[in-house]
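Researcher: Structure prediction, please.
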Amino acid sequence: MRSHVEELAGIRESVLAGPGEKATAAQKAKGKLTVRERIGLLLDEGSFQEVEPLRRHRATGFGLEAKKPYTDGVVTGWGTVEGRTVFVYAHDFRIFGGALGEAHAAKIHKIMDMALAAGAPLVSLNDGAGARIQEGVTALAGYGGIFRRNTAASGVIPQISVMLGPCAGGAAYSPALTDFVFMVRETSQMFITGPDVVKAVTGEEITQNGLGGADVHAETSGVCHFAYDDEETCLEEVRYLLSLLPRNNRETPPAVPCDDPADRVCESLADLVPVDGNRPYDMAKVIEEIVDDGEYLEVHQRWARNIICALARLDGQVVGIVANQPQSLAGVLDIEASEKAARFVQLCDAFSIPIVTLLDVPGFLPGVGQEHGGIIRHGAKLLYAYCDATVPRISLILRKAYGGAYIVMDSQSIGADLTYAWPTNEIAVMGAEGAANVIFRRQIAEADDPEAKRAELVKEYKAELMHPYYAAERGLVDDVIDPADTRRVLIGALAMLRTKHAERPARKHGNPPQ
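Model: Predicted structure follows.
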């Protein structure tokens, strides 16, 4: 028996050592960590329990029978993050370039099934060259099994994809099916067809980073939610994100003790937001003033900047915040902002995260490009997401809320549980100037002094239909509050709504606009 134990110890030592110093040096030369260094940064120290470390492929031909390394290029298992169970699989680029084969895929399938059965988050550390060509169609079938499991786990357990190297072809669809995608600048890329294929088909010349690097997907495509300069910071932020999420859809996000007083007066809010609706301001500063200790995690920070989606805490409880950003495009809703917010609302609803919506929206972005691009269809995605959400929902109108955008941004008419407004709010079909030009077109045209008449009628319209208490008098706003009381009011309302229960109609699933 002792000889067998000694043999096992030798094998395990070989597994932990990896494929050798040369391969490790090549990995380091690219500025990348090894697979076990990455897992060590993600999980609590000493918590990782590996699954199938001795697995080898059984393929033959093309030289594979002579090369059968342990792990088959992917390390799988579970551990803890801040004491809570998290499952992980991580490609080892040093073995077959992290390419997926039959045994490799089987290991991933198994750990995905275990995560779903255990009701715990799944994190993938991606650094692979795609399908293992030598294994042919079995490798492609392996990807199909991953996609099917991604879909089955969607909305059941949090799924996080961390891109730490290349991800090309069909392999890129797995991260796209998950809840969050992290990328590292310079070392990670995602694309369906690489630069060589693009050049051959279209004649366009472009680098890998220019085609599918972190900045491209964080700013232009919206594929990436978070982008960082190095792996250490990236994995630290993954840990922070996990601390804000529940383990599964049957639990609520973890609450933490809070030293920031729930009744803290937010005196600076009145100065942060100009009364003049045409003057921009930074909504991020408003969020910082309201949430616990000014800390929040913004999702898709660099994409669709005219809307903010963030996870934060109020009195130690996790909330999702959706807010117009007047600093960008005056805070209007457009195609990208609608898509960004809709996905975030669906995420919050799936994982029992209450939603707080901060409104200062002048409407939808006009233009031929927006109409031809399907702003109706894309705007409807956000409308559908809010209407379908059953978590506690509170909306707060800071300044202006005009037209269809007001309705879409979780108005009381589409199911917000509570709606508050500051005394500076203006809720209307459109701005006073535009409304006066439509309603009083004839009077203005016939006046001796059209500009003076227009100004008079604009003032009259504002006084009659856009004063701060008009909506409250009609029950469309539950209360008009002092901005300084915002934090206290939101925390009190969320505490009351914590036991909210809502029934959906019986159906297999809805058919949301695409």
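Model: The mean pLDDT is 90.
Researcher: Thanks, that helps.
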